[in-house]
Amino acid sequence: MDDVTIRPAAARATKTAPAENFTGTVLQDAYAAPTATSRTSATLVTFAPGARTNWHTHKTRQVLVATLGTGMVEVRGKPPRILRAGDVAEVPPGVVHWHGAVAGHLFAHISFLEIEGPDNNNWMEPVDEAHYRKVAVAPEA
């Protein structure tokens, strides 16, 4: 390729994230998919208040760029971390974590991953509702 490729926003369809890997309403808009020359995936993920991923890992580093609202990321066994627009979280390969909106807040981030085959993500159990209610409270700004 010797030119810039532009994919108009109208050409991309937003899809609902699969219920087996997410709790609540989560929308995904694929910005970039891996191609023969690149393994990069970039997806805008929008979480309704209270929505979140299941616990999971990735084979490669995940970079989350918060774009809207208030969310969080939690590594299993560690305190959760708040994410606000402009914050960037880097999750190392193999680290068990979840991310999503805090209670009562909309949240969106762009997830960047390098994909290594169809099983790049290892999806686990949902975040327990009692655990979520305990940790998913946004501190005052």
From TrEMBL:
InterPro entries, per database record: Cupin_2, HNL-like_cupin, RmlC-like_jellyroll, RmlC_Cupin_sf
Domain of life where this protein originates: Bacteria
Domain Cupin type-2 as annotated: residue spans: 44-101
Classification via PANTHER family: BLL4564 PROTEIN, RIBD C-TERMINAL DOMAIN CONTAINING PROTEIN
Name this polypeptide is given: Cupin domain-containing protein
